[in-house]
Amino acid sequence: MFRLLRASHPEPGAAVTAAAGLLAVGVGHSAGGVAVVAGTVAASQLAVGWHNDWLDADRDAAVGRTDKPVAAGTVGRRTVAVAAVVAAAVTVPLALLGGPRAALAAALGLGSALVYNWPLKFTPASVVPYAVSFAVLPAFVVLALPGSPTPPVWLVAAGGLLGAGAHFANALPDLSDDARTGVHGLPHRLGPAGTGLAGGALLLAATAVLVFGPPGPPSWAGLAATAVAAVVLPIGWYGSRTATARGVRPVIVFRAVLVVALIDVLLLVTSGRLV
Question: pTM of the prediction?
Fold first, then answer.
């Protein structure tokens, strides 16, 4: 069971599920509503992770990914495929507990993520499913509230920008391995420098939307977060260029992008003002 769970990409899945649950608390869900949101998002994340490892088993084996249970042979490929189907099948029924509009949003987010796994991951449109699925996530959380209120545009836009930025940040460390196995999404076409810049710019834009989008004046904490993001990204970019010139793997920009992504997630889950 542990190895099957390991094949689902549990770390990012748990992070997304936790963020959705915290956002549900922030927008005013009851304990039952938080459970519906977290359960739906967890099932969706499991389906996407298992589907990804089922598809990528041969590619992962080709680059020696012993951390992937399917590629390492510790979990059967068919087992992962069946698990993915089961998790996907329960996602929408769980979301229906939050209402039909919430279920439609959950289905859209799941479908978008699965389409990323194949075929869009290999195309210049690879960023689109990330933007769509992350934009849908806060929309689903709001729509699952009693009465299904309309999600604010700024919240949906911030989610989309955060997702697009996360795509570039996630791809940055694995560009060479991905390219060797035929993955040529948008980050691979932009290269390490372009990917770092794109990810940083998108996450900085998400920060600005989360701070200035809600009604009323921005909080001091939000302004401080914007300032930190604006400083961290150029430092990371400069450090990465210096490391490249010295022949060192340029991971500094990746870490800088992750810092800004964490700031954005914290802003997102504390942005409970809907009107």
Answer: 0.89
